[in-house]
Design a protein that fits this description.
By secondary structure, the protein is α/β, with parallel strands linked by helices. It folds into 2 domains: about 1-65; about 140-485, Alpha-Beta Barrel (TIM Barrel). Helix content is about 40%, strand content about 10%. The protein contains 21 helices and 15 strands. It has helices at about 1-25, 30-45, 50-55, 60-70, 70-80, 90-100, 165-180, 195, 220-230, 260-265, 285-300, 315-325, 350-355, 360-370, 390-400, 405-410, 435-440, 445-465, 495, 505, 510-520, and strands at about 120-125, 140, 150-155, 155, 185, 200-205, 235-240, 250-255, 275, 305-310, 335, 380-385, 400-405, 480-485, 490. Strands 4-13-12-11-10-7-6-5 form an 8-stranded parallel beta sheet. It has a 3-stranded antiparallel beta sheet with strand order 1-14-15. Helix 6 packs across helix 18 (about 445-465). The termini are far apart.
């Protein structure tokens, strides 16, 4: 209301000064003309739908776009001081915005990367490069116990809850998923009408607080779960064990954002900060996790069931592998969340120093499944700063079958990384429950941008695969992904890491895995020995490459 009054006041003052022009002197035009221009511009800003910033901050918001005009001069400053402390080379944010707007994003003058810098990664192209294949590549998710398999896209919307994001942001994300035929992870904040109404495919995430399927005392409610899991939009169910941005902590939603609507959807008190427990009470052991997977599969009438985690202790994950073999109950998919993932509210220590980054975590999970002989029917998703086509190619080469993105999708719906997520004052209406701010996010326009981003990123990934002389993603091999290890020397991922063969941990574990494997337990997440493992947590993948 304040911005409307401000613009109305400007019109009134402009009108009064115009009267002074006719009544006294033409010199008043020096004041009247600027006021009329400001009033006209502000009115346009309030009614246009393409820019959330301008709808929330008429006139003043244009200063942001004026600064972008001198971006080449200040770009390096912001690249070196990106908001999460990790550089985004080539100003990745601008690339995301361009692709979401369907604007050509080619870059003149060639690479700006130091190709001899240690850690620089690239893929090998081929003299037999070919055109990118038509169609959208998909992975069929569903093991032998799944009766309703789902064809997962290569690039999907990662977990972001309604409550953390506004209703309009959720509507745009799900609308884009519906149009593009890809999946939208609900986050742990429960199913909401804004997830369901657009009709996009959903991965329903069940967190430690069991929002949307909980009893009054915070325990899992099977009947409520059964009822909601039957919805046709729910294609998969994911049990959240941990989150990359804050592994070891539950989710946090500030009380200022817990409206009556959110409280009803989640089953929590209005206006009170919601803190999810750090771990589940429905199970406490790897075998218990397997039994919970079986319970959810039965309650959902055979839909794909999986879990999400940020890898911490390798022995704990190996305990899950042992439990799968002992119980005969396997998840249909596992989503690996990297520690570089983002969040709207978490202590900086957890954001920066807890959990394994996606590369090591992804390969650890893939390698453990291969080594225990259970990889074939379990599909792996990768989530954590996946913003473009090369990210998809790299993750598939490292062991993933599909990918998910949160940060890039948020940018597609208008996020400018203002870092106001926890204050309920998001300037673009993305991460807020303030209806006045949220209304600035135009759902049809941002739906189109989500669709554009996903399509353009996948198209670029397909072209990369074709440029490598391959016909599909399932042809990717770790030997095709290179990393510079010292000046003028690069080695492939096949050379850099030890790769386990199918069933190797069961028959003859390599020394680098032996301690963790021998002390992992199916009936406890705690090592059977009090001595801590001194082996590296960095995975040594060995992949049985599956058809996508």
């Amino acid at each position: 209301m304040g911005r409307w009054l401000a613009i109305l006041g400007t019109w009134i003052v402009a009108g009064l000064t115009l009267l002074l022009v006719f009544a006294f002197s033409a010199w008043w035009l020096f004041l009247t003309v600027p006021l009329l221009l400001i009033a006209l511009l502000g009115t346009y800003d309030l009614f246009q739908r393409r820019h959330s910033i301008l709808r929330n901050y008429p006139v003043l918001g244009h200063f942001r776009y004026l600064l972008e005009l001198i971006r080449p001069e200040i770009q390096q400053y912001f690249i070196e001081r990106d908001t999460d402390g990790t550089p985004f080379d080539r100003d990745t944010r601008s690339v995301i915005y361009a692709r979401a707007k369907n604007v050509k994003d080619v870059d003149p003058f060639g690479t700006e990367r130091d190709v001899n810098a240690v850690g620089y990664e690239f893929v090998r192209h081929s003299m037999t490069a070919q055109p990118a294949p038509a169609g959208a590549p998909r992975v069929r998710i569903g093991g032998p116990d799944c009766t309703q398999p789902y064809d997962m896209a290569m690039y999907n919307v990662s977990a972001m809850s309604f409550g953390s994001l506004s209703a309009n942001a959720i509507l745009a994300l799900n609308g884009g998923a519906a149009r593009g035929g890809f999946a939208h992870d609900t986050g742990e904040g429960a199913l909401s009408p804004y997830h369901l109404n657009p009709g996009g495919d959903l991965i329903w995430e069940i967190g430690t607080a069991y929002f949307g399927c909980r009893t009054h005392d915070g325990r899992f409610d099977p009947e409520t779960f059964r009822e909601k899991a039957a919805h046709s939009s729910v294609k998969c169910i994911s049990i959240k064990l941990s989150q990359g941005a804050k592994p070891g902590l539950g989710g946090v939603m500030p009380g200022a954002k817990v409206s009556a609507e959110i409280a009803e959807i989640r089953g929590v008190p209005v206006g009170r900060t919601v803190v999810s427990p750090p771990s589940h009470n429905a199970f406490q052991t790897p075998a218990g996790l397997c039994r919970f997977i079986a319970e959810l599969r039965e309650l959902s009438d055979g839909k794909p069931i999986g879990f999400k985690l940020c890898v911490g202790s390798r022995s704990e994950f190996l305990g899950i592998c042992k439990a799968i073999r002992e119980t005969g109950i396997a998840p249909d998919f596992i989503i690996v969340d990297g520690s570089e993932g983002g969040t709207g509210a978490a202590p900086i220590e957890f954001e920066d120093h807890v959990g394994i980054p996606l590369t090591q975590g992804l390969m650890t999970v893939h390698n453990a499944l291969v080594g225990t002989g259970i990889r074939d029917d379990i599909y792996i998703g990768a989530s954590g700063k996946i913003t473009n086509g090369i990210d998809i190619v790299k993750r598939v080469a490292q062991g993933a079958d599909f990918t998910l993105a949160a940060r890039a999708m948020m940018m597609a719906v208008g996020c400018i990384q203002a870092q106001k997520c926890h204050t309920n004052t998001c300037p673009t209406g993305v991460a807020t429950q303030d209806p006045r701010r949220a209304r600035s996010l135009d759902v049809p326009d941002k739906t189109e941008r989500v669709y554009n981003l996903q399509r353009n990123v996948v198209d670029n990934a397909k072209q990369l695969v074709a440029s490598m002389g391959l016909s599909s993603f399932d042809d990717l091999q770790p030997s095709m992904l290179m990393r510079t290890v010292q000046a003028n020397e690069a080695r492939s991922y096949a050379e850099l890491y030890e790769w386990l063969s199918p069933g190797q941990l069961l028959e003859n574990p390599p020394e680098s895995w032996r301690f963790d494997w021998e002390h992992a337990q199916a009936d406890s997440f705690v090592l059977s020995s009090t001595r801590e493992a001194d082996t590296s947590l960095i995975a040594t993948p060995g992949r049985t490459w599956l058809a996508v």
